[in-house]
């Protein structure tokens, strides 16, 4: 089943944005005009890494059930398989996006052992950082340079210039990440740390474990205290987050026409298709088949 789960490739993303490919496994998106409407109204997974640099505007975006309010001067680092759901474009946005596959990163690294220096590669969660003005300016210049070399890869030393441009950008992002990492860990409260642990536990178990008690026992807390902490940090209780994980996965699976609703019901461990349909309609206000027709 996992092989059949629909993911958005770089080309899928380009199609939604109305743009064309540049080079294999790498794409640099630079807003030519502000984004007013949501190009991805439904949750999805991508098979690539993405670096987003927010230049103007704002949006509410959910990554793996955690909601982020993106603002100007934010950088967002998104790993493959992260479940992304754009909730709302609050004000028209201008941004730069660099999207690439792991294969591209490995084949265009100056020193393969140095790929391990890019610690954000290994993260399963999106990372949102606020940048200083000079950091934003530096990254924008490097993104434009990479875009230029990516669209002129057939020139003399084209691949070499592309590789060096890519590494310049990656090392700059890595430097910012390293500078902020200790600060992020220090500032993370016990409640935020607990929420992060819960989300990780939920991602690994939500298809088979839907009882609040399973999660509270694994985190050595009472069910009531766990729900209170999660509500304070994320705005949702334990039960609501469990339901959200199931619904989000159902939406992703329903976007794949190769899967029948019965198969999706089985994959999510519902006792039967009817029970899955009632559960889905309760949360989305559409039946699974109605939702599929709309996507």
User: Roughly what fraction of the amino acids lie in strands?
Assistant: 15-25%
> What top-tier CATH class of the largest domain fits best?
Mainly Beta
Principal-axis shape: globular
In terms of per-residue confidence, which ranges show pLDDT below 50 for 5 or more consecutive residues?
A: 1-6
Give me the strand/helix succession.
HEEEEEEHEHHHHHHHHH
Number of strands: 7
Q: What is the helix tally?
A: 11
Largest sheet: 7 strands, antiparallel
What number is the mean pLDDT? Answer: 85
* CATH superfamily caption of the largest domain: Regulatory protein AraC
Q: Return the structural class.
A: alpha+beta
How many structurally independent domains? 2
| Fold-level CATH name of the largest domain | Jelly Rolls
Radius of gyration: 20 Å
Q: Roughly how much helix do the residues carry, as a percent range?
A: 40-55%
Distance between the termini: 20 Å
At CATH's second level, what is the architecture of the largest domain? Sandwich
Organism: Flavobacterium chungangensis
Protein name: AraC family transcriptional regulator
Domain HTH araC/xylS-type: 196-294
Keywords: DNA-binding, Transcription, Transcription regulation
